[in-house]
Amino acid sequence: MQWLLLVVIIPYIYFLLKVYISLSGIKPWIPSSEPNINVSLIVPCRNNADEILHLLAALAEQDYNKDLFEIVVVDDNSTDDIISAISHFDCFDNLRLIKNSGHGKKEALLTGVRAVSGDLIITTDADCTPKPGWIKTVASFYSDNKSDLIICPVTLESKPGFFQRFQELEFLSLQGVTAGTAAAGSPVMCNGSNLAFKRTVFLEHSVNLRYDIPSGDDIFLLQSIIKKSGTKISWLESKGAIMTTSLCNDLPSFIRQRKRWISKAGSYNVKLPVVMALATLMTALLQLSLLFTAAFMSEVIPVLVASFLLKSIPDFLILKNTTKRYGSAFLMKWFLPAQIVYPFYITAVLISLGFPLTMNRSVNKTYMEGKGNRIN
């Protein structure tokens, strides 16, 4: 009878194998023309005076025509000396620092988009580092495809140690799902650290960013665009478009970050990411339940081993594909220990959230109507 418990894993395997099949068909994008697109790069910033120095240094090395792009740093009510940090780059004719007209990253993005005039908007964060051809690659892709939203690749900085490698592997698995679902035409995730869109598209959908929730500017924008027919969302597969972001320095900050990611899931208005998240959650909880049960009932051990193997197959395939595409195949030697740790990590995040399985998914209509003036 206990073998019937493995039915719980079937949705997880189904979704992940579909992702892998889609990933297997992705080919690197090669530009066919020299872009001539006006690009506005927006960087929301709150108390990131130290980090933004590295970002701006990397942006100074971009090989895109300086007359065709601008950098707008939006100060989200920082208490550090962001003005002094920006002044180190006063040689930039295309760099501006503006104040957020409200509070929070979503308001900062809206402030930035309203202040620029570029045909294409690219967003990133202060703790990120692009390659020299980053802007040119994204602009070239947009020039060839005219997508409403371009989902670009993000990787974590590489550091030694199991905690750091676990973060890299988990992040790459998320990137695999991001790329696979987007390439299949059903995107479930994106990352605001490396996202591009038409200015008019953002302004049209900005009302749906859920300003009552602190995070999720990227996901709520994606879901709003998905729900409008006729829009085009693309995945950009190119090493030149990769953005590198920083690791969490310690376990508490890592758990807090994941809590932010998971806590907004109850407000999603698109079914697929919710179903995939639930399938992942149920699989992790099943594995943990079987593990504790096996400590008292030896007959459950074969079921536990089977659940571990069944879950590991699609995980391995996706990570094998993604680490190879990003030149990080060496991380696969950490796959087995990361698989063992994963259900404990998921459970720890859920406990810290108080198991929000009954989160309210309804939209506060009064609040959203009150934000209607954000569109213009």
Beta fraction: 5-15%
Gross CATH architecture of the domain at 28-174 and 182-251: Alpha-Beta Complex
- How do the helices and strands follow one another from N- to C-terminus? HEHEHEHEEHEEHEHHEEHHHHH
Low-confidence segments: 356-376
The CATH homology group name of the domain at 28-174 and 182-251: Spore Coat Polysaccharide Biosynthesis Protein SpsA, Chain A
- What is the helix tally? 13
Q: Mind describing the biggest β-sheet?
A: 7 strands, mixed
Instruction: Count the beta strands.
Output: 10
Shape designation: globular
Strand order of the largest sheet: 3-2-1-4-8-6-9
What is the CATH top level name of the domain at 28-174 and 182-251? Alpha Beta
The percent of residues in helical segments reads: 40-55%
- What is the third-level CATH name, the topology of the domain at 28-174 and 182-251? Spore Coat Polysaccharide Biosynthesis Protein SpsA, Chain A
Average pLDDT across residues? 87
Distance between the termini: 59 Å
**What is the radius of gyration?**
21 Å
**What structural class do you assign from the helix and strand content?**
alpha/beta
